[in-house]
Amino acid sequence: MNWDEIEGNWKQLKGKVRSQWGKLTDDDLDIINGKRTELAGLLQTRYGHAKEQAEREIDLWTEKLKQK
């Protein structure tokens, strides 16, 4: 699944995002609204990740989505 598909299906994927990153709130998910840069920024804020680590986690998560 590429990021355009994720952005387009964001409402359906919110639950999967929450199960992956439990520290993100419903308000956070509304702010992200399917935008990768917003997700990376909030992962940095909530988890204290460096930008590269946040991007790596997002890449791993999207790879898992492709496998399903």
List keywords for this structure.
68 residues; mainly alpha; Protein Yjbj, Chain: A
User: Structural class from helices and strands?
Assistant: mainly alpha
Q: What is the distance, rounded to the nearest whole angstrom, between the alpha carbons of the first and last residues?
A: 9 Å
Average pLDDT number:
95
How many beta-strand segments?
A: 0
Shape: globular
Number of H/I helices = 5
Number of domains: 1
Q: Approximately how much beta-strand content do the residues carry?
A: under 5%
The CATH C-level class name: Mainly Alpha
Helix and strand arrangement:
Blueprint: H1 3-8, H2 10-20, H3 26-32, H4 36-47, H5 51-67
Task: Explain this structure.
By secondary structure, this protein is an all-alpha fold. It has one domain (3-67): Protein Yjbj, Chain: A (Orthogonal Bundle). It is 78% helix and 0% strand. It is built from five helices and no strands. The radius of gyration is 11 Å and the shape is globular. It starts with a helix and ends with a helix. The mean pLDDT is 95.
Brief summary of the model shown:
The chain has 68 residues and is mainly alpha-helical.
